[in-house]
Design brief:
This protein is an alpha/beta fold and 192 residues long. Helices cover 22% and strands 14% of the residues. A five-stranded mixed sheet has the order 1-2-3-5-4, with helices on both faces.
Length: 192
């Protein structure tokens, strides 16, 4: 653990890893995919998922510093990024846009209309566009897989996700490895 502990989660798994450091102090970096703070019109998870609390102070429950988090979400992720930047009542009824959710959960703000808010160190957020995903379904919740989320099993990678690009699998894993090492605790107390 002295080399760092990296965690990755998708969808509900992303919700868990976003909070991992609060429960496991050894966690040093998180890659969250398909993540936000407003999954349903009736659910607001900002109290625990947002980087800052309602008073503008660092949210202690969030745990990780924003330099330790990289977040990816599809432009038309109907759970966490409906309508990306333009509210549309057909998909965003009583929900924050994807851009608002990414800003809130990572603590990084970029220019309006920007899809790429990855920082020079690789942390931040990236909205995978429909053009990036190049799928008939667009950049949905399961943009990294070739089909829909349900009912088909999503066990085949989207060919766009496994090529060489800023938001692709290899780049994400390289960032996760590097960040986990960079933010590793110098001394880990608690075991071998």
């Amino acid at each position: 653990c002295s080399r760092g502990v990296a965690v990755h989660g998708f969808s509900q798994g992303a919700q868990l890893v976003a909070l991992a450091k609060h429960f496991a102090p050894e966690v040093s970096a998180a890659l969250v995919q398909g993540h936000g703070d407003n999954p349903l019109p009736i659910s607001d998870l900002s109290e625990c998922m947002d980087y800052f609390d309602s008073n503008g102070q660092r949210n202690a429950v969030h745990g990780l510093d924003r330099k330790q988090v990289r977040s990816l979400v599809g432009e038309h992720d109907s759970t966490f990024s409906c309508c990306y930047d333009q509210p549309d009542p057909k998909c965003c009824w009583h929900k924050r846009t994807g851009r608002q959710q990414q800003i809130a959960t990572t603590g990084y703000t970029c220019a309006a209309g920007e899809y790429d808010c990855l920082q020079t160190d690789g942390s931040g957020w990236y909205i995978v566009s429909d053009a990036d995903a190049n799928k008939s379904l667009g950049a949905n919740h399961c943009f990294a897989w070739s089909g829909a989320c349900l009912p088909q099993p999503h066990d085949e990678w989207n060919p766009q996700y496994v090529r060489d690009c800023k938001w692709c699998l290899d780049s994400n894993l390289k960032w996760l490895h590097s960040a986990a090492r960079r933010f590793a605790s110098a001394v880990w107390v608690g075991g071998v």
